[in-house]
Hints:
Layout (H helix, E strand, L loop, with lengths): L1 E8 L5 E2 L4 H14 L12 E2 L6 E4 L2 E4 L3 E7 L3 H12 L4 E3 L2 E11 L7 E6 L3 E2 L19 H18 L4 H5 L4 E5 L1 H9 L5 E8 L2 E8 L3 E5 L1 H10 L12 E3 L8 E5 L5
Antiparallel strand pairs: 1-6, 1-8, 2-5, 3-6, 4-5, 7-8, 8-16, 9-14, 9-15, 10-13, 11-14, 12-13
Helix pairs in contact: 1-2
Amino acid sequence: MRIRIVFNLLNKGGYVPFHHQYLLAELVTGVILKGGNDRFSNYTDYNFSGLKGQIQISRKGLHFYSNKITLVFSCNNVDFMDYFLDNLFGLGEFEIGNLVLSPSMIEREKPIVLGDKVKYVCISPIIVRKPAYHDPISKSFINPENDLFSDLLYETSMERIENQKIYTAKQINSFYRFQIVPDREYLGKLMYHNKKFARIYPVVEHDAKFEVRGYTFPFTLYADRKVQEFLFTHGLGSFTHKGFGMIDIANADPIKRIITRKPKVLA
């Protein structure tokens, strides 16, 4: 299930750092622990985007000027989703970076029918390598057109699918087709304008701080439909529960995919 959590922005012009996924991850973890339910205290099978809204860029980061800010959140566990939303909306008003936000509304997305060839955009950076502590390799650049890029993401994806225990070993072995083809025209434009699609991001896991390289660009994924569905819901790559690897359908109108829209009313 993919939903959009809509927040009221209470201080128009407020800002977050360019790389703010770690702030969102802190919020999500704090909300989970706030509820005090041991069943979900170590739950990590969810994925979320960066904050979306009308922005302007300054040296401080991303300044938001829209009345509403949206966060896409995805999880297949309905009990966890209800638990998380109840506790999030129970905060009332809170800060992320310099932004003062108040939860306003939930929009549920219509399920998407996916094939074995899908073009995606990244709505949060993809981490190809999951690092070990003080591992410089995790920050090294890999050309997305290199087979190594697809191979590493394939290995991560199969490991995560296997851990879900929803497919047999025979089925997982049949998911051998997996190839990421980046949008060359998009990458060419970025290079021409001297802009980056790969940056270093901070991640905190078990009180240890890592630095990882994340990638943000449109691409076409050739893979089994079941793999496409898994990645669309659970995210692509490593540290998906830290807000990395969320993807969305390219050239699609997100407004047309809303099937329910309602304020969240706590019991």
